[in-house]
From TrEMBL:
Gene Ontology CC annotation, any one: ribose phosphate diphosphokinase complex
Similarity remark: Belongs to the ribose-phosphate pyrophosphokinase family.
Domain Ribose-phosphate pyrophosphokinase N-terminal: 16-128
Stated role: Seems to play a negative regulatory role in 5-phosphoribose 1-diphosphate synthesis.
Entry-linked InterPro entries: Pribosyltran_N (IPR029099), PRTase-like (IPR029057), PRTase_dom (IPR000836), Rib-P_diPkinase (IPR005946)
Official protein name in the record: Phosphoribosyl pyrophosphate synthetase associated protein 1
Keywords on record: Nucleotide biosynthesis
One GO-annotated biological process of the protein: purine nucleotide biosynthetic process
UniProt GO molecular function: ATP binding; magnesium ion binding; ribose phosphate diphosphokinase activity
PANTHER family per UniProt: PHOSPHORIBOSYL PYROPHOSPHATE SYNTHASE-ASSOCIATED PROTEIN 1, RIBOSE-PHOSPHATE DIPHOSPHOKINASE FAMILY MEMBER
Amino acid sequence: MNVAKSGYRVFSANSSAACTELAKKITERLGVELGKSVVFQESNRETRVDVKESVRGQTIFIIQTIPRTRDVNTAIMELLIMAYALKTSCAKNIIGVIPYFPYSKQCKMRKRGSIVCKLLASMLAKAGLTHIITMDLHQKEIQGFFSFPVDNLRASPFLIQYIQEEIPDYRNAIIVAKSPAAAKRAQSYAERLRLGLAVIHGEAQCAESDMADGRHSPPCVRNTTGHTGLELPIMMAKEKPPITVVGDVGGRIAIIVDDIIDDVGDFVAAAEILKERGAYKIYIMATHGLLSADAPRLIEESAIDVVVVTNTVPHEVQKLQCPKIKTVDVSMILAEAIRRIHNGESMAYLFRNITVDD
């Protein structure tokens, strides 16, 4: 394809080898060359971006991944500065391809904190982005934070294909949610694979919903000094039941599904419980493999047999440390999304057989 006549360019927002790997796979599938740019940090640690070719009047796709080896805030600044550089160079449209959207877990108000995900959405719009392509947002409602279109792609077709092709006896498997909060995602996998569903529930789990919002958690002891205001009922403290596995996993392959695997403590604990309940093999399927801190070592020493993640986040170093980690390539769907957006084609094909609440 002649890049000059195609009317669009694909840039990588990071010049490191780890971050350009996914960008190169996408451009190879599209048949275009990766845009010429340099992203680096100066001696004072300020990020600088130099775009080496004209982008006037063109549609630009910026691919940015968030690697473990670099600061997530640096990656965000690289994306913002590159978007602003392209905006001031008269690019027609600037579309961010951000497979793993950072700060997506901070999408709810907790006590006196802030909704950082909403702040990041506003910053991206201010920098000049007009559209983003992402994958498996932590909460689908995050799309409402943006003032421009968001295409939230799904990795589940690729992970389901891995289950069907790489687990010979997957018909003897059961899909497991490691907490009640993950049950909806697990149910989707179970229905597509025609498998059973199990849910782990109990005090060993710490779901996001347990991190109380101060506005909905009044103190148990009333303040008797001064004006007490309205006489609100006292909220009883939560008490989790003993650990329970709802569903029979005995003699089965247990497949735990989630969107992010970062701190693996919960997954390791869930694997031990499933082993105690009779599961003879344990797989973990997740879209984003952040695998921070000692995650590779903990996985290697645990009862987990295989961890399958996609290449939305670079994790080659972790794979060298832990042979249990396997990767599924999702560059195909990202490349197809770019092609369809540029050609003005419908994106519905990428969401076929995926329901609204999935």
